């Protein structure tokens, strides 16, 4: 992961340190069995979530996965149908005024005033949060400059471009220096350079102790987050740092190997550090290992020991689009395989327990090469079925693996 | 062909959109219908009989008790009392307890002998020029009826004083006095007698102020709800009380500015008199604005779209035009409709502003209280609804 993310990762993986600005120890947001239904439709189902203080958590999922419903429950706009939710220690349905002052919210759509100028909009937002004149002026300038809106500060918001409007929304959410930022697609419609600026600013804020819960339609932006909560069909199907999610999707790490001559990857299946293999061509194959760094040398030696010669070996990094598609597809398979009426297994654990998705990832167009016909078979199917039988924790919500401190 | 397809698609889309909002359709169709139905059933169109007191001097030779006028009938006038004290009767006229004071001639016989008309003075106390004309017309009718009564009494007496006098000095009595011994003189006690424009000026101002306050405030809140700003408010520390006060303050100031400018134009350009202290007028305008803003808040709380808010605002305007006394007198409606009319801020606004500007005093002080109560009830109920709006759904 990126170097700049290290402090946040530490806050996720290690016992939480007291935050500089947030006095809630540990979690800025805590959800337990969070459920929201609209008549017959279950929009969010049994969501368990802990958002560590001072981290960026990405809420990612396909359209209709329950991201916005979750966000609206977090900000107190929607009341949960069931479950327990705490935001900065308060029930969002009855947030105290002081708690509200510590939250910055950016909705998905432009909700500012078209007839006010950019500066007036920011000023109004700052006033709602009680910023007095001098601080308000200072903060107004700071956020407008940060988001490259200072030059158009006197332009009416209705005449700003789509990207500028998004930035104005973000400026209004940031102006009162909140401790918790809830941002619904903050980078939608913003050009890549400004997206970079936005994420840099979020990282800077995070390093200062601010917690950010961010939804994004750009799955690749998951890498900008310290922890990713992956939603599908209203359920949380993954909650881990991005690299860990990638590992879950792959069933480990994948080494891509090219041999000089035809090589049968199945001969490596019995090696203790190998979790699975996948033939992608006559000479090319992928090997799933726990740790690519330590396994590479051992793998090359093992291939040479059976008469093979390695031309190249490298780590396979699928895109997050592929990772999420795989995780979601796998979750659907697990749910479909679960007997009717039986609780479906805790997703992250089930995913970690088997390497099946690696095959699906390997089948993605980018990394895959010509595959032999026999590789089309799906030997992971029984494993998926087995994974479906992994029971939930006996009491309470299912337990996450130890390296996923947020998911419970 | 493709153009037709596009036109039909557009038309279809509009119709579907309209029908997707059942509330809007309901208010669109039923609103005006209901108002017209209330108008149709509630308006009888018959002018209320004017309540009159007859003042008879003891020297007049006319009966001084109500018993003596049992057979007296004039269309449109009901004689409620016969008194001798003119000042007391005029006081009752000033307090709007009665509509007319009829002062009988002090010595009709002597006047007749002298060949002079006796004057039947009819006092009224109205600013409305239409009402003043009507009262004048009634006074003429009254005088004609009195003349007829005199002849009737004369004939009933056998020869009557007319005939008796005629034998002596008929030649000195002008023919028109013989034909019409009594003539009517109408006196309006109202401090000013404005023309049509001056009379309707304050009423139009009250109507404009209410409509402006209702429409602007209702649209402002509905727009915030549909744009998502209300969700931002929900997250922010803003309370419903602060939201209501902020909105009322903004549109109250705008309304006050509009009222001040309009008032200056009414007085300076249209010649509307200003007989009251400006501060009293300002107080009434403030109450009218508060109550109207409360109505606007209430409309915003029950509207789910700008379209519906506009429709409801227009219905409020329509109801105000019909029932507030702006065009038709409230007492020409059935009692239940009159009660409903008093639930409109503008009904009191029109009456109070006309009183203050044209008469210099408030005829019915209870209307100030009614306006204040309306403002309080509307603001509190809409505050409660907006509070619910700011809570999680």
Question: Would you write up a description of this structure?
Answer:
The complex is a heterodimer of chains A (408) and B (393). Chain A has 13 helices and 13 strands. Chain A is elongated and about 75 Å long. In chain A, helix 5 (133-146) runs antiparallel to helix 6, helix 8 crosses helix 10 (320-337) and helix 10 (320-337) crosses helix 13 (381-388). In chain A, 33% of the residues lie in helices and 21% in strands. In chain A, the strands form three sheets. In chain A, strands 5-6-7-3-8-9 form a six-stranded mixed β-sheet, sandwiched between helices. Chain A has a four-stranded antiparallel β-sheet with strand order 11-12-10-13, with helices on both faces. Chain B is of the alpha/beta class. Chain B is built from 15 helices and five strands. A five-stranded mixed β-sheet of chain B has the order 2-1-3-4-5, with helices on both faces. In chain B, helix 8 runs antiparallel to helix 10 (240-268) and helix 11 (278-302) packs antiparallel against helix 14 (345-359). The model of chain B has no long low-confidence stretch (mean pLDDT 83). Chains A and B meet through helix 3 of A and helix 9 of B.
SSE topology:
The complex is a heterodimer of chains A (408) and B (393).
Chain A: H1 6-13, E1 27-38, E2 41-52, E3 56-60, H2 67-74, E4 82-87, H3 97-100, E5 103-106, H4 118-128, H5 133-146, H6 162-174, E6 180-184, H7 192-207, E7 211-215, E8 227-232, E9 235-240, H8 242-250, E10 253-259, E11 274-279, E12 284-289, H9 292-305, E13 310-315, H10 320-337, H11 347-352, H12 356-362, H13 381-388
Parallel strand pairs in A: 3-7, 3-8, 5-6, 6-7
Antiparallel strand pairs in A: 1-2, 1-4, 8-9, 10-12, 10-13, 11-12
Helix pairs in contact in A: 4-5, 4-6, 5-6, 8-10, 10-12, 10-13
Chain B: H1 2-19, H2 22-42, E1 50-55, E2 77-83, H3 86-94, E3 100-103, H4 108-113, E4 118-124, H5 129-156, H6 160-169, H7 175-179, E5 182-188, H8 196-227, H9 229-235, H10 240-268, H11 278-302, H12 306-323, H13 335-341, H14 345-359, H15 366-389
Parallel strand pairs in B: 1-2, 1-3, 4-5
Antiparallel strand pairs in B: 3-4
């Amino acid at each position: 992961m990126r170097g700049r993310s290290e402090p946040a990762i530490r806050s996720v993986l290690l016992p939480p340190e007291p935050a500089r600005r947030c006095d809630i120890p540990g979690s800025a947001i805590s959800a337990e069995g969070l459920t929201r239904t609209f008549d017959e439709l279950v929009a969010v189902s049994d969501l368990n979530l802990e958002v560590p203080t001072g981290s960026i958590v990405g809420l990612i999922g396909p359209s209709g996965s329950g991201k916005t419903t979750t966000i609206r429950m977090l900000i107190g706009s929607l009341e949960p149908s069931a479950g327990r939710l705490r935001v900065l220690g308060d029930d969002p349905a009855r947030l105290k005024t002081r708690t509200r002052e510590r939250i910055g919210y950016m909705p998905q759509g432009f909700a500012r005033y078209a007839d006010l100028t950019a500066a007036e909009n920011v000023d109004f937002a700052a006033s709602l949060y009680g910023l007095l004149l001098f601080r308000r002026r200072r903060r107004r300038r700071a956020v407008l400059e940060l988001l490259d809106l200072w030059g158009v500060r006197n332009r009416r918001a209705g005449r700003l471009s789509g990207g500028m409007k998004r930035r104005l929304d973000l400026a209004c959410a940031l102006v009162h220096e909140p401790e918790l930022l809830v941002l619904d697609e903050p980078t939608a419609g913003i050009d890549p350079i400004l997206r970079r600026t936005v994420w840099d600013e979020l990282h800077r804020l995070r390093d200062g102790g601010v917690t950010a819960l961010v939804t994004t339609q750009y799955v690749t932006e998951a890498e900008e987050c310290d922890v990713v909560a992956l939603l599908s069909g209203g359920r949380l199907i993954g909650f881990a740092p991005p690299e860990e999610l990638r590992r879950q999707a792959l069933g480990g790490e994948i080494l891509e190997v090219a041999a000089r001559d035809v090589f049968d990857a199945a001969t490596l299946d019995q090696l203790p550090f190998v979790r699975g293999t996948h033939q992608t061509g006559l000479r090319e194959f992928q090997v799933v290992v726990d740790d690519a760094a330590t396994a590479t040398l051992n793998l090359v030696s093992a291939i040479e020991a059976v008469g093979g010669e390695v031309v190249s070996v490298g780590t396979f990094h699928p895109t997050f689009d592929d990772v999420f598609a795989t995780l979601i597809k796998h979750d659907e398979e697990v749910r479909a395989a679960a007997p009717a009426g039986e609780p479906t297994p805790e997703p992250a654990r089930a995913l970690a327990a088997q390497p099946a998705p690696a095959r699906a990832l390997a089948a993605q167009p980018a990394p895959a090469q010509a595959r032999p016909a026999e590789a089309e078979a799906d030997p992971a199917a029984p494993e998926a079925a087995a994974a479906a039988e992994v029971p939930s924790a006996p009491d309470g919500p299912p337990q996450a693996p130890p390296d996923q401190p947020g998911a419970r | 062909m493709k153009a037709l397809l596009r036109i039909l698609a557009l038309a279809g889309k509009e119709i579907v959109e309209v029908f997707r909002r059942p509330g809007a359709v309901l208010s669109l169709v039923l609103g005006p219908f209901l108002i017209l139905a209330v108008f149709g059933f509630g308006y009888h169109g018959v002018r209320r009989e004017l309540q009159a007191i007859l003042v008879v001097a003891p020297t007049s030779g006319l009966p001084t008790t109500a018993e003596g006028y049992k057979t007296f009938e004039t269309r449109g006038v009901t004689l409620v009392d016969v008194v001798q004290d003119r000042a007391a009767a005029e006081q009752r006229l000033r307090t709007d307890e009665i509509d007319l004071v009829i002062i009988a001639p002090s010595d009709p016989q002597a006047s007749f002998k002298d060949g002079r008309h006796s004057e039947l003075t009819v006092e009224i106390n109205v600013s409305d020029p239409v009402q003043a004309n009507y009262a004048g017309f009634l006074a003429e009718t009254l005088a004609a009826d009195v003349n007829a009564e005199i002849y009737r009494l004369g004939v009933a007496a056998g020869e009557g004083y007319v005939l008796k006098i005629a034998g002596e000095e008929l030649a000195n009595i002008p023919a028109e006095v013989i034909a019409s011994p009594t003539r009517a003189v109408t006196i309006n006690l109202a401090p000013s007698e404005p023309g049509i424009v001056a009379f309707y000026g304050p009423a139009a101002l009250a109507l404009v102020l209410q409509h402006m306050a209702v429409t602007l405030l209702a649209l402002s809140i509905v727009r915030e709800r549909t744009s998502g700003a209300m969700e931002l408010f929900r997250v922010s520390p803003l309370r419903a009380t602060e939201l209501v006060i902020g909105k009322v303050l903004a549109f109250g100031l705008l309304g006050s500015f509009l009222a001040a400018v309009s008032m200056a134009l009414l007085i300076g350009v249209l010649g509307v008199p200003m007989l009251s202290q400006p501060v009293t007028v300002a107080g009434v305008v403030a109450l009218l604005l508060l109550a109207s803003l409360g109505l606007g808040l209430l409309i915003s709380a029950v509207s789910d779209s700008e379209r519906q808010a506009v429709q409801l605002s227009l219905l409020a305007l329509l109801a105000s035009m019909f029932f507030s006394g702006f065009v038709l007198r409230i007492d020409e409606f059935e009692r239940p409709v009159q009660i409903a009319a008093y639930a409109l801020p503008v009904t009191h606004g029109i009456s109070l502003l006309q009183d203050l500007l044209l008469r210099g005093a408030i005829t019915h002080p209870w209307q100030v209280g009614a306006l204040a109560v309306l403002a309080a009830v509307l603001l509190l109920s809409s505050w409660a609804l907006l509070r619910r709006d700011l809570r999680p759904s």
